[in-house]
Amino acid sequence: MGTDEFGGEQQDRVDQTTIIGGLPITLLDLEESARLFVEAALSARTGNRRPYYSTSANGQVIALARSDEPFKALLLVADQIHADGMPMVLLSRIFSRKALKERVATTDLVRSVAAQAEQAGLSFYFLGGTPDVNRTAVARLQEAYPKLRFAGARDGYFTTDKEPAIVAEIAALKPDILWIGLGVPLEQQFVARNIDKLTGVGVIKTSGGLFDFISGKNSRAPAWMQNVGLEWLYRTILEPRRLLSRYLKTNPIALWQIMFNSR
Question: Which residues contact 98 (CB under 8 A, 6 or more apart)?
Fold first, then answer.
């Protein structure tokens, strides 16, 4: 994983990981992760350095990393990998020497970071989603956090020939925290191609379907289903055609990986 240094205490937290399903997962909880983002973003303002890069893993990601070595390599260059799946947390208590404290879902993390970013004067950039979803996500987060600044926003429907101009625009705007919601593995591939062109951006966070949830297009599972690791079932009920076959394929592989490749 990457090793940008932002000071001793912060680096100590960055180094706190446990192996779950073959991936180094951060032990930082939600609030600790939010503080790390804010500290990293503020630190980046003093130099023209490579962004701090955070991504996430769930059952789908663990399964894909097992079968796709190039994708796994994209994950391992990140400075941080969050557990964005409650089953990972529950199973870490059985199969890992260092259990995860809690799930760090990006839909929760963005709000914790936004609350602290307001006070610190940090700016966001949302990249991804449809034009309507992107606009609505920005509007709803600003409604919840009125002092939060947006350096810019852009939907995720663009062709490869447009990518250099979009990256150049983001680099020029220098948002403190760039949230990228292009889906797995497109968002990790986007970061790999462009992270060295985004110096001046403080933090990059791959975000999956974050903007769909913030905008209200998709709903979260009830809290009790989240707590027992059944949010995947809730989502399958809502979108059976899209998700049923995916989960039937990936969940058994992810479970096997966690059982036999955690420590």
Answer: 18, 27, 92
pLDDT of residue 48: 81
Gap between the Cα atoms of 26 and 227, Å rounded: 19
pLDDT at residue number 2: 52
**Interacting residues of 257 by C-beta distance below 8 A, sequence separation 6+:** 21, 22, 62, 63, 66
Q: Please tell me the total number of residues recorded for the chain in this structure.
A: 263
What is the pTM (predicted TM-score) of this model? 0.92
* Sequential DSSP letters for 15-81: T-EEEETTEEEE---HHHHHHHHHHHHHHHTTS-PPPEEEEEE-HHHHHHHHH-HHHHHHHHTSSEE
Cα(175)–Cα(172) distance, rounded to whole angstroms? 9
H/E stretch holding 206 reads: strand 203-206
242's CB contacts (< 8 A; 6+ apart) are none
Neighbours of 94 (CB within 10 A): 10
With residue 126 as reference, give the H or E element that holds it. Answer: strand 123-128
Distance CA 55, CA 160 (A): 22
Question: Using an 8 Å Cβ cutoff, are 208 and 181 in contact?
Answer: yes
Instruction: Calculate the CA 65 to chain-centre distance.
Output: 16
Instruction: Read off the pLDDT of residues 96-144 as tens digits, 9 standing for 90 and up.
Output: 999 999 999 999 999 999 999 999 999 999 999 999 999 999 999 999 9
